[in-house]
């Protein structure tokens, strides 16, 4: 059986995710977005906008400054000249995935016919006609928010709304129908979903295509293998949130077909697999800030195994108890995670702030502090330009803050 060193596994994983390719400076257009999604297979969606919303960041990390409107167009524009490329669904959490992959989630839609949570059953019990009322209103009105539906159906709730999970009955039904594949999301406004019939959002051949669960899961596992480069069975199932039972059968089938090649990785306890088309590069040249939901690192156990990098998002940790900060971007240099920076963007003031900057232990051990600080300064200032803010201000938290501040000032001269 083939054996990979830990370093080779890192390079393989990083390259599979689209890093190490030539960055062509300012990039615009749907082609850049489509190219990234071919590598990552999906883009996770998250509501936090401390710096930039999560689905925009992975494209920037891989191709450099690009027009974010290109991603909006890929997901929310559908014309004869520019057909929709991406669609929202529950893949690795809420995510954009290629329109062509939507039928591979049909088995999940069947599972979610009555909603992802028990709330839908409770709503059905107390409002048995609400599903049809919502569907009738959407048929008549076209794309609409849950809040607008509440007005149309005279189902408004008095008083202040609670946190994001405090859904009205109408919102619960909309989410049930979205999870069940009856509704889809043609666009968002101020990050709020608009709902419409799936048949009006997606091409007829996509909506009508049925893929059995076994075949669909096998295809999803192969896509996971392509996206990850080298992965354990647990890694492969996490990319699309599959079950162990589903993944076990799919992996066995793909190994028998020669699509997955079993390998061992030095230091890994579990069996690993390479896709037969995966390349193992001798080096990877990259310098990239990774948002917390980047597909390279959203699997935290895999991130620790690959990079020796323990990472937990601290958004919900009280500020005095945070180790690194509110919204921390790991920094990828070549094939290693060498630092992490807390980043906030104040668009009104035109400032990108870095309250804290921290190196990983290997940086000092190998005398790389200067290299890391310079590369990170270039990436942070590039992000500021991409987000249309004029200044970068580095705070004083973290062992890398002083060095980073000096390098940022040098870059800005």
Summarize the structure in words.
The protein has 413 residues and is of the alpha+beta class. Helices cover 41% and strands 18% of the residues. The chain contains 18 helices and 16 strands. It has helices at residues 6-16, 30-40, 57-63, 68-76, 106-111, 119-126, 130-141, 146-152, 169-179, 198-201, 204-208, 213-228, 233-239, 244-256, 300-307, 361-365, 369-386, 401-412, and strands at residues 2-4, 43-44, 86-91, 93-98, 183-184, 188-189, 192-193, 196-197, 230-232, 260-265, 272-275, 287-289, 328-333, 336-346, 351-359, 391-397. A 5-stranded mixed sheet has the order 12-13-14-15-16. Strands 1-10-11-9 form a 4-stranded mixed sheet. A hairpin with a 2-residue loop joins strand 6 and strand 7 (192-193). Helix 12 (213-228) crosses helix 14 and helix 17 crosses helix 18 (401-412). The radius of gyration is 22 Å and the shape is globular. The N and C termini lie far apart (54 Å). The mean pLDDT is 94. It holds the Pfam family AlkZ-like.
Give short descriptive properties of this protein.
single chain; 413 residues; alpha+beta; five-stranded mixed sheet; four-stranded mixed sheet; 18 helices; 41% helix; globular
Q: Quick summary of this structure?
A:
With about 425 residues, the protein is of the alpha+beta class. Helix content is about 40%, strand content about 20%.
- Helical content (DSSP H or I, runs of 4+): 40-55%
Uncertain stretches of 5 or more adjacent residues: none
**Termini distance?**
54 Å
- Write down how many β-strands occur, each being a DSSP E stretch of 2 or more residues: 16
Using the CA coordinates, give the radius of gyration: 22 Å
Strand order of the largest sheet: 12-13-14-15-16
Give a quick account of the main beta sheet: strands, pairing sense, barrel closure: 5 strands, mixed
The percentage of residues in β strands lies in 15-25%
What is the residue-averaged pLDDT?
A: 94
Question: Structural class of the helix and strand makeup?
Answer: alpha+beta
Shape: globular
Count the DSSP helices. 18
InterPro entries: AlkZ-like
Pfam family, one: AlkZ-like
């Amino acid at each position: 059986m083939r054996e990979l060193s830990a370093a080779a596994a890192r390079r393989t994983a990083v390259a599979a995710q689209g890093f190490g390719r030539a960055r062509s400076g300012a990039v615009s257009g749907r082609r850049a977005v489509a190219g990234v999604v071919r590598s990552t297979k999906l883009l996770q969606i998250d509501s936090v906008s401390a710096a930039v919303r999560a689905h925009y960041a992975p494209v920037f990390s891989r191709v450099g400054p690009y027009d974010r409107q290109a991603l909006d167009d890929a997901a929310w524009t559908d014309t004869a000249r520019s057909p929709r490329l991406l669609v929202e669904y529950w893949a690795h959490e809420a995510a954009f995935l290629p329109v062509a992959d939507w039928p591979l989630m049909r088995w999940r839609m069947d599972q979610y016919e009555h909603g992802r949570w028990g709330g839908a059953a409770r709503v059905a019990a107390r409002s048995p006609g609400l599903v049809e009322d919502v569907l009738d209103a959407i048929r008549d009105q076209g794309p609409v928010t849950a809040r607008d539906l509440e007005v149309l159906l005279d189902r408004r709730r008095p008083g202040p709304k609670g946190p994001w999970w405090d859904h009205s009955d109408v919102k619960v039904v909309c989410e049930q129908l979205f999870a069940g594949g009856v509704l889809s999301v043609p666009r968002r406004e101020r990050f709020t979903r608009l709902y419409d019939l799936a048949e009006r959002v997606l091409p007829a051949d996509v909506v009508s295509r049925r893929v059995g669960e076994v075949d669909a899961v096998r295809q999803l596992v192969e896509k996971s293998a392509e996206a990850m480069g080298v992965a354990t069975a647990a890694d492969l199932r996490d990319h699309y949130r599959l079950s162990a039972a589903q993944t076990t059968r799919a992996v066995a089938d793909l190994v028998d077909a020669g699509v997955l090649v079993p390998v061992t990785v030095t230091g890994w306890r579990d069996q690993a697999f390479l896709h037969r088309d995966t390349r193992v590069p001798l080096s990877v040249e990259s310098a990239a800030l990774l948002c917390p939901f980047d597909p390279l690192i959203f699997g935290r156990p895999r991130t620790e195994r690959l990079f020796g990098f323990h990472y937990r998002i601290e958004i919900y940790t009280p500020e005095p108890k945070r180790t690194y900060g509110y919204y921390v971007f790991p920094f990828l240099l070549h094939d290693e995670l060498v630092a992490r920076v807390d980043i906030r963007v104040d668009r009104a003031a035109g400032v990108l702030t870095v309250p804290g900057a921290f190196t990983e232990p290997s940086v000092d051990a190998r005398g790389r502090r200067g290299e890391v600080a310079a590369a990170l300064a270039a990436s942070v200032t590039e992000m500021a330009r991409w987000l249309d803010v004029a200044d970068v201000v580095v705070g004083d938290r973290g062992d890398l803050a002083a060095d980073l501040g000096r390098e940022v000032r040098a870059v800005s001269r």
